[in-house]
């Protein structure tokens, strides 16, 4: 029986490798025992995965330069921009100090802060003026070197001085640097500080110095100064005396005694007690004379007709009380230091 290959059954479909080429599959029969036989899995049909994958364009699963965006165009007149350059660092305001510094560098913020500071200082001055006479203190510290030298000479040698009157300009007394008869606070303040230093030096030469002694001496002197000022103020009130003396005037006149104390302590380092008592007695007399002549024109002004004889006696008693009290306080504040 002859087998005719061409006599295969009609109507049997041919195996097509590529529908577009029209090539037929090989006519050799497929060996069922060969496992490595390459046969198209889709049998020439388009895969149905829900989307169409073109065989002409391979899939790219890595870096595809053609898929990158076009580089940014630089601005006119500027350098070319690199699209792959890292972003500039952003300002970090996590540090409050850095944020405050950058904020204050702004002109608007600086102007507002300056105006607010000026307003705050002005308000503080107004409140301070209620308790501390800052403007008045400026008058008492308006001194120069010539005034200090003339004033010290006047304290030690007041007997030759003739004119004790004070000059005024538009009902306001001249500043101390223009009028040597005017009281000041510079000499009493510096004399008080020098007194504390001289006290430590005197105790050191006697091997009695301790750091606590300076604090005790300074606080004790301040306490006696406050008590003395209160006594004079109460005396003026009780005696009902209307004078041109101010509280700072009394404080200045009473503070001149520290000049004599310093001179006495300085001489005591060389001449011991003899030199101390000699300078103390002499300066007590000169200071009393200085206070009587200076306070007389402030308590009993010349040509004032409204004062009665009785009132003038009370004023004179007050002047003598202030002048006599100074030598006693000079001795009380310095006798234990020699």
From TrEMBL:
Protein's name according to its UniProt entry: Protein YIF1
Cited function: Has a role in transport between endoplasmic reticulum and Golgi.
Biased composition (Low complexity): 70-79
Source organism per UniProt: Microctonus hyperodae (Parasitoid wasp)
Parts of the chain that traverse the membrane: 185-204, 216-238, 250-270, 276-295, 316-335
Superkingdom of the source species: Eukaryota
GO biological process: endoplasmic reticulum to Golgi vesicle-mediated transport; protein transport
GO cellular component, one term: Golgi membrane
PANTHER family membership: YIP1 INTERACTING FACTOR HOMOLOG YIF1 PROTEIN, YIP1D-INTERACTING FACTOR 1, ISOFORM C
Compositionally biased tracts (Polar residues): 21-45
Mode of membrane association: Multi-pass membrane protein
Compartment list: Endoplasmic reticulum membrane; Golgi apparatus membrane
Pfam hit, one: YIF1
Family annotation (InterPro entries): Yif1_fam
Predominant cellular place of this UniProt entry's protein: endoplasmic reticulum
Disordered, as annotated region: 1-51, 70-93
Protein family (similarity comment): Belongs to the YIF1 family.
Alphabetized UniProt keyword annotations: Endoplasmic reticulum, Golgi apparatus, Membrane, Protein transport, Transmembrane, Transmembrane helix, Transport
